[in-house]
Write a structure and sequence with these properties.
Layout: H1 23-30, E1 36-40, H2 43-57, H3 64-68, E2 69-71, E3 76-77, H4 82-85, H5 89-97, E4 105-109, H6 110-115, H7 117-127, E5 139-142, E6 147-150, H8 175-196
Parallel strand pairs: 1-4
Antiparallel strand pairs: 2-3, 5-6
Bound molecules: 3'-phosphate-adenosine-5'-phosphate sulfate.
Length: about 200
């Protein structure tokens, strides 16, 4: 972690902190004032995205369906598969709440980050106590990419979209598989909404 001077804040990110059991204790023993930002999206879409990413690197893995269920006809979801486990946000949050108050956490909607990036980043800036510098004027919707992109980053004179590994076309998954996973996640989602006091409308 680089040193932070007065008037500066240090930001650090990894997709795995939120779901790593030891991370809350380790981070709180480093600094109990740390503010935590978590991007969450519909856990079913998240699982499919996760699988799509793995498949792009390892084309020989079993199908999504084979990995997602212990027994599909009995509706038994395999919670040991990381793509499934990570989306049980309510469980991960419980561990964090043993070390950090909810007021030190901010949850970004992955869906709104795409439909309204400036709005989501406005809330992030407020949470960090920063002036709202990043606004609507910094984004445009890139039709080819199908996502918002930055109009002109500080270090460049040209617009910049995220790379090819962000926003891939997802693998097609059967409707009934999606329904079963929705049913599985519903109670965890409700618990998550109640704990954070925010309804992400994933149903
Ligand atoms: N502006 C913009 N451009 C491209 N992609 C965007 C953008 N905003 C959010 N997203 C969503 O970010 C998803 C990838 O982020 P990840 O969290 O998987 O990245 S990582 O875990 O840090 O590698 C990626 O998920 P997939 O669509 O499943 O690939 C995107 O939906």
């Amino acid at each position: 972690m680089p040193r932070t001077l007065g008037g500066q804040i240090t930001l650090e990110k990894t997709p795995s902190y939120f779901v790593t059991r030891e991370a809350p204790r380790r981070i709180s023993s480093m600094s109990r004032d740390t503010k935590l930002i978590v991007v969450v999206r519909n856990p079913v879409t998240r699982a499919i995205s996760d699988y799509t990413q793995t498949l792009s690197k390892k084309p020989d893995i079993p199908t999504f369906e084979e990995l997602a269920f212990k027994n599909k006809s009995l509706g038994q979801v395999d919670t040991t598969w990381n793509a499934i486990r990570i989306g049980i946000y309510a469980l991960h949050l419980e561990t964090w709440l043993q070390y950090f108050p909810l007021a030190q956490m901010h949850f970004v909607s992955g869906e709104r980050l795409i439909t309204d990036p400036a709005g989501e980043l406005g809330r992030v800036q407020d949470f960090l106590g920063l002036k709202r510098i990043v606004t609507d004027k910094h984004f445009y919707f890139n039709k080819t990419k199908g996502f918002p992109c930055l109009k002109k980053p500080e270090d460049s004179s040209t617009p910049r979209c995220l790379g090819k590994s962000k926003g891939r076309t997802h693998v097609q998954i059967d409707r009934d598989v999606i329904e079963q996973l929705r049913d599985f996640y519903r109670p965890f989602n409700v618990r998550f909404y109640e704990t954070v006091g925010q309804d992400f409308r994933w149903d």
